[in-house]
Amino acid sequence: MSTPSGKPDAKAHFDLVVIGGGSGGLAGAFRAAEHGARVALLEPHLLGGTCVNVGCVPKKAMWLAAEAATRLQFAPTLGFPVAPAPLDWAEFIVHRERYIANIHASYRRRLDAAGIAVLPAWARLLDARTVECENGVRLHADRILIATGGRPLRPAIAGAELGGVSDDFFQWRAAPARVAVVGAGYIAVELAGLLQALGSQVELFVRGDRLLKEFDHELTTQLAEDYRQSGVRLHFGHHLTAVEAAGEGVRLRDGDGALGERFDALLFATGRQPNSDRLNLDAAGVAVDAAGHIVVDERHATSVEDLYAVGDCTANAALTPVAIAAARRLMDRLYGGREAVLDQRDIPTVVFSHPPIGQVGLTEAQARALHGDALVHVYRAGFRPMLYALADMPQRSVFKLVCLGDERRVIGIHLMGEAADEILQGFAVALKRGITLDDLRDTVAIHPTSAEEVVLMR
Ligand SMILES: Cc1cc2nc3c(=O)[nH]c(=O)nc-3n(C[C@H](O)[C@H](O)[C@H](O)COP(=O)(O)OP(=O)(O)OC[C@H]3O[C@@H](n4cnc5c(N)ncnc54)[C@H](O)[C@@H]3O)c2cc1C
Ligand SMILES: NC(=O)c1ccc[n+]([C@@H]2O[C@H](COP(=O)([O-])OP(=O)(O)OC[C@H]3O[C@@H](n4cnc5c(N)ncnc54)[C@H](O)[C@@H]3O)[C@@H](O)[C@H]2O)c1
């Protein structure tokens, strides 16, 4: 392909070199190849990146197991003579990993079929047109797409190395008895919820005063209540200053210097940082922001011509469908003659908590700040889903619509409760099409479902 001395041979030139084989990189490589481009993809680890290997997919598998565990728990109340049955993690993980191996195999087949050259190597830029692999192989390209994603961040405190991060969680082969989780974002809330449902005693350490601060306050307050009811211990306003070893486990030291109880395991879910530092971006003159995100415009162009970036290595919403949508639109423009640009507004998102919480559009607080109180109208539904009512379980759903002006245009949809994860997608389409409250009310409900509450709101 090329020589370690750097002398290019005829084959080492590509229309497009993609750095990173995760959600964004694969989507970009496939779409460019569909349009006839000659593409090389560089990925040193497993195909699929964070989402497939240490993110969405294994997380959702664990969440599904946790949902099954919850149902098994209340099955006896409904009349099923089922004894309590803890999850055999090792057995479940065989199923989880088989599912993921199938995804790898499918990517591999599709890459081969598309004629995309895959190099299992770390890459860095030599200049705006040349990529060097760790073994010295050099590739020359007319265009380069950087899709190197991100990695978990540990807090800079003494003993931080005693805690794990989400990547470590996916290596676990059994549930620890007592787990401390630090953080209040997506990952903290998701892992805390599923670990508690799968039998661990979980304590969540939050430095602020609420969970999921980007989500609607009313819903996250109810979620915190549901977590308490399911046995998760929540510590708000906790300032973690150090972690200390305690036998095989750890203890957390807080801002007052007090040392807490012992935990078998500690997970940090304290944010992620972009993988931009090992790319030698300076050599090509690619600008990054203070957090290390590669700076891109709305067309995903970096500060250097013909060099593009998508996904978590940029400051775009760190979600798989966002990376994929950005990469596909970019390749449609570059190689397909289409003019599509990703609309970054009204991106729907779901946290796989127990129960799940999802939103699209503005929260009530954002809408009031933007449009003023007089123009913003809020509609709510609070109810117990049928299954939970039948089983005499306290879990409640809270749905909320944020509407604007006299016509009551729907500018925010917020759902927390059973099936919210599946319900939101369709309503996100409606919101994007600019529907009003009357449009929802004109739609005949599907009964009996949780989803019908969205069209029945008064
Ligand atoms: C625990 C967890 C759960 C998540 N759950 C969800 C979810 O439910 N839904 C959702 O939408 N999103 C979820 N996300 C976010 C989602 O995984 C990311 O937004 C998505 O993977 C970003 O895709 P990407 O292509 O930008 O990066 P990645 O998927 O991270 O891929 C980047 C790839 O680049 C490679 N790479 C890095 N540096 C180099 C280099 N120098 N040379 C060559 N290759 C390199 C890496 O090995 C990696 O494979 C989750 C994330 C985590 C951590
Ligand atoms: N369901 C999904 O779609 C999904 C799931 C997981 C992750 N993701 C994506 O991945 C991103 C990263 O997730 P995340 O949960 O790691 O990050 P996050 O930014 O969502 O949350 C980080 C949390 O850690 C807290 N924190 C940071 N430093 C801390 C410290 N020193 N001590 C205590 N708390 C601290 C923050 O206050 C915040 O609550 C998300 O923003 C999301 O875009 C999506």
Automatic annotation (TrEMBL):
Residues 347-457 form the Pyridine nucleotide-disulphide oxidoreductase dimerisation domain. The keyword Disulfide bond applies. InterPro entries: FAD/NAD-bd_sf, FAD/NAD-binding_dom, FAD/NAD-linked_Rdtase_dimer_sf, GSHR/TRXR-like, Pyr_nuc-diS_OxRdtase, Pyr_nucl-diS_OxRdtase_dimer, Pyr_OxRdtase_I_AS. GO terms for molecular function: glutathione-disulfide reductase (NADPH) activity. Keywords: Disulfide bond, FAD, Flavoprotein, Oxidoreductase, Redox-active center. It comes from the Bacteria. Its EC number is 1.8.1.7. Its cofactor is FAD. Pfam families: Pyr_redox_2, Pyr_redox_dim. Residues 14-327 form the FAD/NAD(P)-binding domain. Belongs to the class-I pyridine nucleotide-disulfide oxidoreductase family. PANTHER family: GLUTATHIONE REDUCTASE. This is Glutathione-disulfide reductase. It comes from Lysobacter cavernae. The gene is gorA.
